[in-house]
Specification:
The chain is an alpha/beta fold. The protein folds into 2 domains: about 1-100 and about 290-305, Rossmann fold, CATH 3.40.50.720; about 105-280, NAD(P)-binding Rossmann-like Domain (Rossmann fold, 3-Layer(aba) Sandwich). The protein has 12 helices and 12 strands. The chain has a 7-stranded parallel sheet with strand order 8-7-6-9-10-11-12, sandwiched between helices.
Amino acid sequence: MKITCVEPLGISLEHFEELKKEFATKGHVFNYYMDRKEDPATLAERMRDADVAVISNIKLPDTVLQQCPKLKYLSVAFTGLDHIDLAYCKEHQITVQNAAGYSTTAVSELAVGLMLDLLRQVTHFDGTIRRGEGRGMYLGRELKGKTVGVVGTGAIGTAVIRLLNAFGSKVLAYNRSEHEEVKALGASYVNLEQLLKESDIVTLHVPLNGETNHLIGAEQLKLMKPTALLINTARGNVCDIDAVAAALKEGTLQGAGFDVYETEPPLASNHPLLNAPNCVCVPHIGYASREAFDIRADIVFDHVRKYLKL
């Protein structure tokens, strides 16, 4: 079969060459590309003759998939699959498999990092000292003793709870089903309304689907304390971003930390969050650590090996 990795995935040239030799010894052709191209024409050209394709979070619509008649298997180097036309894949019997679990540590650490940044105003004061100014009368806040609401208690949400325990936070949790592991960590499951009302910080760790699209909107934001912080390292559309920006401007939400948006960065200069006060924005870096990418490569190509029964 012909295997095509359409982007570099953070893998070295030497690693790719090793993979190429490995698959060749099993009678398979392995092609790879050391640059990332997201335009549909280039993607279609790279995947056109592939039986197996490897891709990360590049949008893969049916217009591209239609030009790949041989495609039978997609190994996705990403946790979410909402960027792929899964309906088309199902209809045309293309097996799709994600790389679950590779970025659990990376994302959970960033979520807590954003909490700490907002509580101590790290980003703000970096700018202050560069302007030759000092602290003034500012007093920050500590994570210890804060009530943190964790929305979604899958692998990443659970990892966040473990970190919060180390900081001495009280944890409330919301999920469709309760997990004994989470209860054993001391977290209390409550409904979403109670979580929003009682939390000093709300952190989101749910997938994007029909149930979670705009899970946090204007009505939910009204339930939160005006001193509360909102952290989103899940998917951009889990929040109504316009409503979040409005709450920040109106002072009904004290701060927010976002790693994800309606579209992949770069963002337009007039994006609502970029013009909202006390909002720390980073360009979807949660999953992107050296350690996570190494784990991801192992998972992705192990999936290919298993599919090919190697």
